[in-house]
Amino acid sequence: MQEIKEKFFEGEHALYGLSNASLENVTFGNGESPLKETKDLVIKNNIFKYKYPLWYSDNIKVTDSTFETMSRSSIWYINNISIKNSNLQVPKLFRRCKHISLDHVFFSDAEEKMWTCQDITIKNTEINGDYFGIVKI
Fold first, then answer.
1. Checking phi first, is residue 10 left (phi over 0); if not, alpha (psi -120 to 50) or beta?
2. Is 111 inside any structural domain?
3. 97 FRET partner, CA 20 to 30 A, in 36, 47, 82, 91?
4. pTM (2 decimals)?
5. Tens of each residue's pLDDT in the chain, 137 residues
6. Beta-bridge mates of residue 98
7. Is position 135 within any domain?
């Protein structure tokens, strides 16, 4: 497994297509879609500052991380993601995702989250905001 530690990335598609990797103490600054089309990632103590950090990815484990307000539309089209002990400040999070597990997560602005998602487990989590969990019927 590739290890990426204590780095700062900017620019679009910084680690596009990354697979089988561990990211620890990494900050993603300005630049869209830094982790698009990735798989088998372990993300620990990372900060996401800008748009679309995780799109079209599989098998993602996030712990002790922060998705700041400007990391809008952060997690879309993901299959199998777990998030623990993390702060999700961003609105419009989780769209068309499957197999989501959340434990000890804080949603400071849960506006438009979990839309058209499937198989969701939420434990020990605080959710603040409107329009949480809209599903397509």
1. beta
2. yes
3. 47
4. 0.91
5. 999 999 999 999 999 999 999 999 999 999 999 999 999 999 999 999 999 999 999 999 999 999 999 998 889 999 999 999 999 998 888 889 999 999 999 988 777 778 788 999 999 988 887 766 666 54
6. 79, 118
7. no
